[in-house]
Amino acid sequence: MRTVTYFFIFLNLSLAVFEEPAVYPLPFLVTSLVEVVCLLVFFGRLTHFAKVTFRDTFWKDTKNICIMVAILLSLTDLAIYGILRIYNVSSIRWSRIVRPVFLINFAESRQIRRAFRSIRNTLPEITYVFLLFMFSLLMFSLMALKLFGERNLRTAEGLPYFKNYLEIVFDLYVLVTTANSPDVMMPAFDFSSWYALFFIAFVIVNTYIFMSLFLAVVYNNYKKHLKVMFEEVDCD
């Protein structure tokens, strides 16, 4: 049963590759039939679990309620999407976002739920580091606006360089990943090579220091919560 459940969960999640907009598009009838089969299997698995569980216990378990709601939402969305498609009305399959619910909430996914719960418990504790990072990003963006906003610089495409504060925030946020380096620096560097020091300082502070600190906090807190969770399981 565990193998069958995982197979149909994987099949259900894989439909995103074949549904519009798709990497390998398949006819809507094919993908919808596969999804209906998957949902029927999930409903059968849930029904089987209800047969071997006390009724009060079954309905008090939020995991079962989540699966039931996800099945109903998926079927409703599939029916609405199919009807709109018949009348050539464009729409979006909004129920795709509930598909991971099946992966998390089935009884066979106990280890996945533990990992998910550890991530959820870790989030509040990394908020302070994230806020410090955002403060640093906003302050560097403000300095960039003051440094380059009045220089009348242009990008390689001829667009104004560092004129809009929100665009600066986004460009420097991307620079944290170094995805736009050194392109984002070149207009300022061409104006004066000394301006490279600003971008070097930004990368050192935000990419190397803050990202390392952020990763360390996430790892340590996640490991702590996971350890506590396994200790509680052993005690039970």
TrEMBL record:
<feature type="transmembrane region" description="Helical">
    <location>
        <begin position="194"/>
        <end position="219"/>
    </location>
</feature>
<keyword id="KW-0812">Transmembrane</keyword>
<dbReference type="GO" id="GO:0005216">
    <property type="term" value="F:monoatomic ion channel activity"/>
</dbReference>
<protein>
    <submittedName>
        <fullName>TPC2 protein</fullName>
    </submittedName>
</protein>
<feature type="signal peptide">
    <location>
        <begin position="1"/>
        <end position="16"/>
    </location>
</feature>
<dbReference type="Pfam" id="PF00520">
    <property type="entry name" value="Ion_trans"/>
</dbReference>
<feature type="transmembrane region" description="Helical">
    <location>
        <begin position="65"/>
        <end position="84"/>
    </location>
</feature>
<feature type="domain" description="Ion transport">
    <location>
        <begin position="4"/>
        <end position="224"/>
    </location>
</feature>
<keyword id="KW-1133">Transmembrane helix</keyword>
<dbReference type="InterPro" id="IPR005821">
    <property type="entry name" value="Ion_trans_dom"/>
</dbReference>
<feature type="transmembrane region" description="Helical">
    <location>
        <begin position="126"/>
        <end position="145"/>
    </location>
</feature>
<feature type="transmembrane region" description="Helical">
    <location>
        <begin position="165"/>
        <end position="182"/>
    </location>
</feature>
<feature type="transmembrane region" description="Helical">
    <location>
        <begin position="26"/>
        <end position="44"/>
    </location>
</feature>
<keyword id="KW-0732">Signal</keyword>
<dbReference type="GO" id="GO:0016020">
    <property type="term" value="C:membrane"/>
</dbReference>
<keyword id="KW-0472">Membrane</keyword>
